[in-house]
Amino acid sequence: xxxxxxxxxxxxxxxxxxxxxxxxxxxxxxxxxxxxxxxxxxxxxxxxxxxxxxxxxxxxxxxxxxxxxxxxxxxxxxxxxxxxxxxxxxxxxxxxxxxxxxxxxxxxxxxxxxxxxxxxxxxxxxxxxxxxxxxxxxxxxxxxxxxxxxxxxxxxxxxxxxxxxxxxxxxxxxxxxxxxxxxxxxxxxxxxxxxxxxxxxxxxxxxxxxxxxxxxxxxxxxxxxxxxxxxxxxxxxxxxxxxxxxxxxxxxxxxxxxxxxxxxxxxxxxxxxxxxxxxxxxxxxxxxxxxxxxxxxxxxxxxxxxxxxxxxxxxxxxxxxxxxxxxxxxxxxxxxxxxxxxxxxxxxxxxxxxxxxxxxxxxxxxxxxxxxxxxxxxxxxxxxxxxxxxxxxxxxxxxxxxxxxxxxxxxxxxxxxxxxxxxxxxxxxxxxxxxxxxxxxxxxxxxxxxxxxxxxxxxxxxxxxxxxxxxxxxxxxxxx
Length: 480
Hints:
This protein is mainly α. Helix content is 70%, strand content 2%. A two-stranded antiparallel ribbon has the order 1-2. A two-stranded antiparallel ribbon has the order 3-4.
């Protein structure tokens, strides 16, 4: 609790991170990790056949990938760092301490990847005009770019797997134990063919815009369709390996992770829809291979949109099922380490809070009628302390009245009855038993009561909570 708390009270902090991260994954997997080797293979195939149309098509697809990855991809990559650092600086700080050299290596690989994609794209026409020898070198450059794109993903996947299940790192705290966590190889094995198939689907979509309606379009759709179909079985095999490696406690969160708490019972329907989506994608790819002349543009929108939807949902599920932790068994989603809970529950979280989040004028309205000025002042002090407890322990995931808002959940559970501290505090104290994706309350009994006072105030006050980025903070004086 050494940092001011960044807070978005409408969409919530987690939507900020999720939006940036999902866009980045779609760009990284579809237009870099999977697309670069596909483009290099198309360039090689064109040289082998002596068909300049393949070379022109590969360059056009590369140019689109180049523009998107160096703009949207680069910005969202930096955006992940910025958003996570703002929302949960303790988690990113812990990960940097464990994976400093991995991230340093990834930075070097990323710089190499940027240099390679610049060289590969900008030298295409010049090297192609110099003859077969330079063309062969250029193709090798493309495959090298594909390899370094994959290495970047391979390093980051180690960190993503660690966040879900650190494994034996919890005992020995060594770097390589953290890297070779139980989910690293299964997740890497799953993401590799997923990226290749995603790239193939995107490429088939682009082919319809970059080719004329002739025999070459049919040949290109058939060839890229075969590429996509080749990797499809590996997605299923490695996906099952990945799913089998996920701890059972995380699988219990799957139903909620697919939608929201209200849609927890929708899991079976969702899985049937996902299966139907996979079958639809494979069906369209089969048509592209065997009857490409019967494939209209609109038909390729289906697998293109479907695989984007499935990849986005995969990322949502992966992020959610590790709860109540943000780093498995080590740090809860509220940014507090599991080993610190005993201390915090004894002394209280406010005893270690560096900053206080002052109530705005709008937040101070809605007090009960009939109170004397002294009683109002005393109640506002309790509400202020309760708000600080909320901000320090709940606001990483929850808002007041927005997305995943506390008032929404309390209204669903308790309806229009008075949300008294006795009612809400009693629930919060034991909520992690009923909802295992929720971390235990980290504070002491007094703070649990203060949080209840604040939640009762939310029932009568609909003002949004301004974060420290807009309202500022007050530095708490250390006890004398």
